[in-house]
Write a structure and sequence with these properties.
With about 120 residues, the protein is mainly β. The strands form 2 sheets. Strands 2, 4, 5, 6, 9, 10 and 11 form a 7-stranded mixed sheet that branches. The chain has a 4-stranded antiparallel sheet with strand order 1-3-8-7, with no helix packed on it.
Length: about 120
């Protein structure tokens, strides 16, 4: 499975962005997809996941502000980010868990929220 993320950019505090992650390859084997983020000097952490049956989970920091979704017809996952805060500034990575124990990562897209 190969992943291509896009949609990052610069936004003011309180603004919105939508990230996209297009999947290709053995997409029928994908069990779960998700978004992670890595702020400068910090470890990469989970933001949200979505399972093959549409179940979602979010970390507390983004609950009520971010929405993860997927369009199976387009093989694309999205992260709608609203009410953004400066602490959301990070490089955002999409991931896919597929097959028995495989993980693929997208290349990362920079999101910067100005105060």
């Amino acid at each position: 499975v190969q992943l291509q993320a896009c949609g990052g950019g610069l936004v003011q505090s309180g603004g919105s962005l939508r990230l996209s992650c297009a999947a290709s390859g053995s997409i029928f084997n994908i069990n779960v997809m998700g978004w992670y983020r890595q702020a400068p000097g910090k470890q990469r952490v989970l933001v949200a996941i979505i399972t093959s049956d549409g179940g979602t989970k979010y970390v507390d920091d983004v609950k009520g502000r971010f929405t993860i979704s997927r369009d199976n017809a387009k093989n694309t996952m999205y992260l709608q980010m609203n009410s953004m805060k400066p602490e959301d500034t990070a490089v955002y990575y999409c991931m896919a868990g597929w097959g028995p124990s495989n993980v693929s990562w997208g290349q990362g897209t920079q999101v910067t929220v100005s105060s």
